[in-house]
Amino acid sequence: MKCVIIGAGIAGVTAAETIKKINQDIDVVLIGKEQYLPYNRYRLTDYLCNVIDDTQLYFTSFDFFKKNNIKYRNGEYIKSINPAEKTIKYYHNEVMGYDKLLIATGGSQHLGPILKPFSQYIQSYYTLQDILLLKKFLPDIKHCVVYGENLSNLDLLAGLCNLDKKITYIIKGEKARFPLLKEEFEQDVHYFLKNKGIQCITNDKLVNIKKEKKKFTVETLNQKIIKTDIVFAWDDSKPNISLLEGTAIHKKTGILVNQYMETSEQDIFAAGDCAEIYHPILKNYWINFGWPNAREQGEIAGKNIAGEKALYQIHETLTFHLEGKPIKARWWE
Amino acid sequence: MNYKELTVRFCGIAGDGIVSSSRIISGACADAGLHVMVNDIYSAEIRGLGKSTSTIRFSGSKVYSMGDGINALVGLAQQESIDEIEDIREGGSVIYDSSSPADIPETESLASHIPPEVNGYGIPLKTLANQASGSNRGRNIVSMGALCHLYGLPKTIFINQIEKIFKRKGDKVVESNLTAFELGYEYCQNQYPLNNLFVMDKKAKPLQIISGNEAVAHGAMDCGLKFFAGYPITPATKIMEITAKELPKLNGWTIQVEDEIAAIGAVLGASFTGTRAMTATAGPGLSLMSELINLSVMAEISAVIVNVQRGGPATGLPTKVEQGDLNISLYGGAGDSPRVVMAPTCSKDCYTSIQAAFDLAEKYQTPVIFLSDLFLGQRLETDDIKRNINYKKSTRIKPTRQQLKNYQRYALTEDGVSPLIVPGEDGAFYSITGLAHNTAGNPNFESEVHLTMTQKRFRKFKSMVKDLPPVEIIGDADADIGIACWGSTYGAIFEGMQIARHNGVKTKMIKSIMIYPQDEESFKTFFASCKKIIVFEMNFQGQYAALLKSTYNIKPVEVHIPSVDPVSPAKIAAKIMEVNHELTQ
Amino acid sequence: MNNQTPGVKIEKSTDILDRKWIDINIPCRAACPIMTDVPGYIKAISEGDYETAYMINRQDNVLPSILGRICSRPCEAACRHGWDGLGDPLAICFLKRSAADFGLREFAPVIKPNHKKVCIIGAGPAGLTSANDLALKGYDVTILEQFEEAGGMLRFGIPRFRLPRDIVENDIKSILDLGVKIKTNTRIESAAFIKELQKQNDAVILAGGCMLPKKLDIPGLDSKGVTWGLDFMMDANRDRLLSPMQKVVVVGGGFTSVDCTRMAHRLGAKDITLTFLFTRDDMTVGEHELDDMEAEGIEFVFLVSPAGIESENGRVTGVKFVRNFIQKDKSIKTIPGSEFVIEADTVVFAIGQEEEKFLPGEKLTAKDNFFITGDFRTGASTVIQAAADGRKIARQVHQKLSNIKEYQDVITITPVKETGRVRDYDFIPLQPMDKIPLTERSQKEKEVDTGFPREKSVSEAKRCYLCHFNFQIDIDRCIYCLACIDVMPVDCIKMAKDIHITDDGNMYPVPAENWEQVQAIVIDNNKCIRCGNCVRACPVDCISISQYTLDIIEKI
Amino acid sequence: MNSLNKRAVLEGLERAKIKNKSKWRDILPTWCPGCGHFTALNGLYEAALDLKIPEKNFVVVSGIGCSGRFPFFIKGFGFHALHGRALPIATGIKIANPELTVIVVGGDGDGVGIGGGHFPHAVRNNLDITYILLDNSIYGLTKGQVSPTSPVGMISGTTPYGNIARPINPTTLALAYGATFVARVFSRERQDVSDLIKQALQHKGFSLIHDLSPCVEFNRLITYKSWNQVVGKFPEDYKADNRTLALQYAESKEPVYLGLFLKENIPTFNDHVKQIFKKIDSTEKS
Fold first, then answer.
1. Chain C residues within an 8 Å CB radius of D190
2. N or C end of chain A: smaller count of CB under 10 Å?
3. CA of A322, closest CA in chain C: separation in Å?
4. ipTM more than 0.85?
């Protein structure tokens, strides 16, 4: 049996490991879009601030793949899926067959209709590639504009503060609405932002960016004009599911899965930040963002693929480290 | 004095009828059952001052070479003949024209140069010739009549021969020549006593007389030659002249093309269609051909190229002999281009080995260079050649039905020979090329393919060994001195060995028609059994010796004879004695 | 075309293969219900010739300025530029608007009256199109309109910020200028009235549209603050006073629901939520409108069904929803126990419209010279579909009244030398439409899209693959030299062992596996980018470019 | 320029399928895309298929140069020989087996340059072979040097100051040598090329097809365009039976005439050979 895993994040790698643990005879192909070995995305800021070195960044090694006999294809990505023929198509048009397919493509930063036209001026902050680039030119940067409410944004703000950058933070509402548990947000985050001297612009939106030489001019809805060296901005995080186009796999924001991590198509599974699941407590569909969730979903999916029935029980797991303090995410309030 | 063997030389300038005289004498002798060898040496010019000689050696027993010295010189041209006097043996004779010359200084007159130990016979050749035919031509016939009387040769064989040769020119010519002969005979009869007598066996059966070139031409035609292309060149032209006449009778064709390049081109073309084809040339022609011989190696097309060697380099000595083309035959090509090189030693060899050459060429799809030489090609020789019509020992290997399915022109086989079909045959088609190619024949420049294909081409030369004409060991098996030689020098060396043996020195010789590839085992055994090895050849470089040295790791005594005349057996014997002396010291 | 060589042979073909070629190779045109010559006018725009572009549009779809704004754009969905790996589809609709913006001119063809009278009931897109087509044929056309002004849904259904009223006026005027008479405030009330109309006219066309909202049955619909999508829009568009609103919930995933949310935004609502039974992918609305909604801060809730209205004192306070689960067959099932409530002071149900059931008496048919067209016939659809249906019925009327035997599709094949397109055009990105800033989006009248400026429209037009140019290799002249394959910009020319014809008439080369099999060198028009490299490279001039245009002629 | 509708394409394909049935060997020609040699390859094939020459009797001999690769692309026997040596080889082939249809393909350098000495003799012998001389006026395979047919003044790698030598006109040469079938074609016109090659194959005796076959890579002076501007057709009453007139037309530079210049019927080499065989047979019998 051949199992193909699209996405070499924590969900994908965990699934691969789980499958191999259960049944060595299953051929596992792991396809990663990035050039690097799978790494800890949530530690990228630490890496940017030189808290850790690159060896601590990776959570796998080539030996790991060798030992487990997992075929790792990095730097390649999938263009489309054909569930009828049980094949996937690479961007370079290679067609590969599968018996079971796990989609663990994760999510990535997404720009809304307003920001989309300015994407070339916006510094993305998501992949190791971004960090490596940033590491190069960050020393020359004095002033940063950050826009968007997201946990990794908070992470970025912390990192930038540690590097002594001047920061202007544009917030849509009256207060920054990080998806954290309320009380901790009140106590720690707000306190944190204030103490670090971050200039917060509330009740406003980023609507225009212009580039003049090396500087950027940022315009807000309330016609505030800020000059800056770099702009970090995004509206939200969205699952990477463009490869599903043309298939009948049910999706909402993410790929709809049941508690076995099965999608609406036979033999296709999804796990991690790209999977959306109905949560009876929430009475809603929910994308269970976050590292530990992804790991758990990857494991469940791996078990199901390898033939062991395992049910995914949603529970609150994500904690987030800010200045060494664990903060709980506001997933299930 | 009685003779069992005679050597007569006619010397004159071109147009004096030297060649026809020698043909009459040799023909007459052969008809009388004598063994004859004739060697013509003539200048490149057609007429005018060019000197030409024809030497006829005849004997009751087999002759292998022209021997040493002459018994009689017929000086049809005064001045030119002077140089030949030194070849005359003691007690020999000179026949010269005693008709009143115009104004001829003493230094230019033949009679004045005749030494005391040689008999001079003055005969008014011109006068008698005029008497017989009304012109100066016919002096040769007059002198022949004189010769006939002087050595007591039977008159009838000459008369028969004159009638035979001049028959096609008409009765008048026959008559005037017969008259000239009679006049010469009578004049001598009246003038000189009968001092010498040639003793001969009257019961001997008539012998066949043939030149090397004729043997080559007939040998080739007898083994299926159907196409000949050539360009006239001395001394190979004769071959083309014969095939031009004879091939159409065999439904074949001879075409004279614009140059030697075209000649070998046409031969390759014809051979491509499965026809046995040949060309003949001399050194300069071979130089021109070398490019297309390369192609025939690369494309594996059978071809037989006869090279009748003459003196070189460049235009060199068009009418003189030399064994100088061995290197170009062996190595004259770009890249690693192996080809078969053969060298016959006598007319009989020419006949049989040209057939062997075709067999090798056809079976192994390779060019064969057949190294005759001017001496061998032109000399007339009596030999008992058994005619071998339609002698086709081997042909090209046809593919099996299985092989035809996915036909590969250059399929790799154990012996390196790929099964072959030719245009006009059903089953498959292919292209051949001089480019490096793969087994299908399509151009391919990968180093691995090139190596494989080169190995394949060389492999043929290994598998060929079993089909080669065998090596002969001649002489005393227990001799310490071993001799190697090639080509036409064989006869003189053989006679030299006999002289040496006569003087108490035993020798043995390895005779191989094959120059490349050779039956290396036989050679190795032979050389191992010799204490001293002598390699004789007629070139300055020692080309054959070089080949032997590099192949068998031997250190022979090399005897290079860059002479333009036939090799002297006496000198060979002297060399053998010298070596023997060194050996016994 | 101006690059056409004088004296070239223009071929008229009625060959079904050529007809199918158009359907398959000009996907935009084939997708357009009214078969607009899309590449034709885009080519004109790329050359800066807006007037030609406008005229092509005016002839094909009658309402160019209107459709240039609010068309549902089936063409863009079909556009070859949007196919796998080729980037974004062309902004065809906006280009149509550019043609009207810059190329508007009087449309005054010579009309020969035929003294036959036709009455059309309803001045919506279908009715107007029918009127236009019949007027051009010389009919004396009168339109009866129930409201005070002509336009139907165009005027009352679509908000002004999407379609300014002067644009509507202009396009309608252009039709009325052909001699079409209009009687407003005239409503069909009785069968007798229709009988009367039939007497006075040679034919009557009913283009009544779908002006009644579809209703559903859940408790609490009678609460104050609950309204229907079309009513909401009609009221807003006719400037009738609406009660102030803060929290608006719109139920439905069609055009009207989107318009309602955006209108609510302009009416001052703060929290606007659009709810839909299915997912975002299943919405009929174009992606650009969803983007606009997102930009205006409207939230989406998918996979929910309304289950009831929560009200207090007869006034709505919220809507109770239940979450849906998509089954394998794509149908939905509610998830028991997943009920939740969204707070609202205004609830708009925009779940579709239907035609008014007011036709009395016996059923009238074409036999009685009575025709029905537009949404009234087909059910609620889009403007372009209604217009297409209007045209279809106009043809039927004309056929009947003027004894036309049949209509025949004629393909004009015009040889051209150059297409004017180059490979570089493939790298022009999609030109984004400029929009007014968010701060100005509270104004009801202000059009959001500001239109392409000239240079932008030319750039955008250049992107078009100009699918109406047919590149073909004359196999009889081809020397198989592969020069064209050498210069091809994409994998568009194939060494073919055969040409395969599918059931729908599409021809595509079957690639030869090796040189031995090659029978022909064939251009795959599906991949051709019309750059003309091959034509220039061909040493023996065996590649022809011909422009395919479609005309429909009447056979008497 | 004609437009092509779909049906025309399909019909063309049908024709091509009939014509091209087993068209060529599975080796993609190595020529530069656009090379005029493709036309000759096609023309030769169409002619051979029209005349139903069996593959086993079809022999193409070529020399070196771009034209030299010809034999690898056809279904038949091929002999890729050495530079300039195709004609002598063809001579050998045709004499040895008169049943074969022998076609020689060579370039201008091959035919009137290095192999120029063989050309008159091939003509002289009047063997029944067809010689397709692909004239691109450049040495293409060695990447652009002047050839014997290059115009005066042409700048090339080996003539950086311009070509001094005057060009040879192969058509004139063949006429002067006494060829019995001389035609000039232009690679742009596939139909004409195949027609004339067909006629040449049918002709008994030496036939020359002088193909103006532009080099698209190295020759910037002589191109499809430049030829297209000067080529012209014979007057309608031109009868290809007068050598003197043919020579006049062949020499014409403006226009450069295309078509059949001369066709004469005299016994071929093989006819003569046959007669000689007959004669010998009868004398031997008597």
1. 476-479, 540, 542
2. C
3. 30
4. no
